[in-house]
Amino acid sequence: MMSRLLLSSAPLSAIATPSESTRLLFPTHLRNKSNKKTSSLTREEQFGFNPAFRLRTFHRRSPHGCLSTSVVGPTSSSSSSSEMQDSLLYSRAYWVSRSQIAWNVDAENSSCYLYASKTACLSVTNDGIQVSMQAGYDVRIKLEVDNTWLSENVIEKFPHIRDYRPFKVPSTLDVKSLLKSQLAVAIYSSDGKWSTATGLQLPGVLDEIFSYNGPLGAVFSEEAVSLYLWAPTARVVRACIYEDPLGRDPVEIVTLKESNGVWCAIGPRSWEGCYYVYEVSVYHSSTLRFEKCIANDPYARGLSSDGRRTLFVDLDSDALKPKGWCNLADDKPILHSFSDISIYELHIRDFSVNDPTVDADFRGGYLAFTSQNSAGVCHLKKLSSAGITHVHLLPSFNFASVADEKDKWKHVDNQMLESLPPDSDEQQALITSVQNEDGYNWGYDPVLWGVPKGSYASNPNGPCRTIEFRKMVQALNCIGLRVVLDVVYNHLHGSGPFDENSVLDKIVPGYYLRLNRNGCIEQSTCVNNTASEHFMVERLILDDLLCWVVQYKVDGFRFDLMGHIMKRTMVKATNVLNGLSKDTSGVDGSSIYIYGEGWDFGEVEKNGRGVNASQFNLCGTGIGSFNDRIRDALLGGSPFGHPLQQGFVTGLLLQPNDHNHGSKADQERTLAASKDHIQVGMAANLRDFVLTNCDGQEVKGSEVFTYGGSPVAYALSPTETVNYVSAHDNETLFDIVTLKTPIEMSIDERCRLNHLATSVIALSQGIPFFHAGDEMLRSKSLDRDSYNSGDWFNRLDFSYNSNNWGVGLPPREKNEKNWPLIKPRIGDPSFKPQSTHILSAVENFLNVLRIRYSSPLFRLRTANAIQQRVRFHNTGPSWIPGVIVMSIEDGHEGVPGLSQLDPIYSYIVVMLNVRPTAVSFTIPTARTRTFELHPVQVVSTDEIVRNSTYEALTGCFTVPPRTTSVFVEPRNT
């Protein structure tokens, strides 16, 4: 990668101008969706530094014509690299409040100065900070050491710099004006020699001075359209107005006026339907220059194709509302409690792009959900009828990786792909050759959060995407399904002043994206991390959520990498949304559910940037987080471990594969510990739930530990736990079961284990979550990360004829090391399910959903209710390996003790048997009771589950191999 930091041997004529070369500093990163823990690049890595080098200088012309001395690159030297590390390419000091600057330096017997240049002519020489002779210093202010340390509110906001030394900013300084300049601080020793210098990070002082709660974006009135843009460091802001989405010169250029950091202009109502972009003149630390940045409106509610221009669109216009839209809040499916929620995760394009029963013009887009008689919609109706309450849609906002205009997409001939052998590497080679130019991507590379993605609309220009998105929500509500949006507020795809996908970093550079101590963008989420700890970032997130709820009437949100967002932001979001009412906003905010990925890693780990929204921090908030403990215990290992590591469902100890799992004693211990993890998860992963562990001790859920030593349980209420066994990330459930089970296992047995795993999730307390296709044995041909694997590897078949197994070796990039394991499996025709297997899987899945919703005892609403009513048997060191027995007890009307919740059943026993043989288990307290197999299983076409029995005389339950059986005690007997 070419860099503006060049080796000293490069001739001056070969050095690229700043505007040319800095375009290459930040490469476009593809979304590596499964690699959650990619470390951020250091400034040295971004700029190609070698620690053995030191800085030298060269002369360049600034855009304002002044000649200045600038840092350009390293020259070989044996001297210290401290000069290099303290250049203005870094921003190691923090202007944390109006009165304080924090810097991690030794200021004893030294002097600290603040510098500002209105022409960006500051540079570093051996004598310290210099500017051109023509320009002179704009500001040079001595800063006194503040002996009081940083204030508590500063430390709360910036805990990672709690030990930094504070310097006093003079109260007479015109801070607002200075913040529009190039800024730096420098230390000079007592003899006047320069010691160190660096740039400044500004979010702290910007928040203190310019926090703003007024209107933003395009605001429509009867006669006018007003534009509001928050850009306190900008010098000039202009709006370029266009009549067309692409091409042609602007028909009008309007200069906005500033008031306390907010820029405003008022135009005619005739702007509606036109497009605009902002031209923002602002200092950008990544180029050490003032730049004219062309950017969309951060509060855009409409876009042209590929997001090149912002559309003036009034979402309140009646012309954009489908028939019946205003009454949708009254027509939504009833939701009595969050405990009644069950979630089906679905990708918009996956749903219909391969469905021939959908109109060809609708396939792969929003309108496919309005095809009421299509195979896919009929399948959703079955799920809804059985109990699924919410469809979780993968990212549907404006993301970067798919062109909006369909004629730009490249395709591979499906007939040719079908003709290739099932274990060939040719399919993946053909798919990956067009993967960045086809119509497929999961979409975890956001550009603008508040606009529906244009590639899913029939026309990406104009308001079409708004209308069609609303029709999709309305259609799903009409078949009994609420809609959850997958939101990605933890990062943005673009950054810098030149990236066409950069928006926020062009408007207020260095504010919206989280920086490390050197002033580089944190990238622990794989791309540019956002900073919700900053006031206006948090506000943008909250405003965006409100827009989706009020204007699109969505019913919930799933937060990607939620742990990278502050807990405070998540709690505010919950309170703001739950406070909405039909009278004031046209929506019932109390029914909006929020959940997400509470992983704790990167710079936010252990509250490194403030209290973050991680699993352990969220307890008591009512916000849900994914329970990876139950997933890993059921399947074995983790998504980042050895692919053959077995778990409770995949054959550990009972049907081992060829992987070395240790001694028999080791396997017995691991299997027993896995059972404890699963039982805690089935009790909603409540940290205070008391159970008997595998050692025979009574312990709380928080006293059961993962293999890494962390507590398994973290929730305080059942709706804070989202139980799952698979999701869009990593292999599908069928694929991972097929990979981990012994290669000689029959397809019938694997299908039963697939169902058994989903049944554990369906019958657990807490909120069950299912990946689309798990109920149909969905395969991605063992692809572990299909975010960019095209329609071919992500196909869903709602005709139930195929599960997409054996469609070629999965893409090389993420899977090649596992090809030796994959190839013999996908090449063997006996591994491929037949249509009969798929139909049975669908029926079994619908049946466990029906069972869940046949009794409120499976959906207990409080931690106390779960503790009082849920019991696990077959516990302690003498347990039968591979068997979990759970009972749920109800009270009786008019009888002291437990209250009565279920009018039909007074007692339920769930028995999970993953063993290859039938198992009998006696519950002494069940003797003489009137248990019978659940009516849903009695009439099931699954002959095996119908062989489950109960003997009242002994209290003995017998369950066939690889089966989940549910026994109930009806009240009428």
Strand order of the largest sheet: 21-22-25-28-29-30-33-34
Q: How would you classify the helix and strand content by structural class? A: alpha+beta
Report the sheet with the most strands, covering strand number, pairing sense and barrel closure: 8 strands, parallel, barrel
Poorly predicted runs are: 1-82, 132-136
Total DSSP helices: 26
Q: How would you explain this protein's 3D organization?
A:
A hairpin with a 5-residue loop joins strand 1 and strand 2. The protein is 22% helix and 22% strand. The longest helix is centred in the last third of the chain and has 19 residues. The chain is of the alpha+beta class and 973 residues long. The N terminus is likely disordered. Strands 21-22-25-28-29-30-33-34 form an eight-stranded parallel β-barrel. It has a seven-stranded mixed beta barrel with strand order 3-4-9-8-5-10-11. Strands 14, 15, 18, 19 and 20 form a five-stranded antiparallel β-sheet that branches. It is built from 26 helices and 42 strands.
Primary descriptors:
42 strands, 8-stranded parallel beta barrel, 7-stranded mixed barrel, alpha+beta, globular, 973 residues
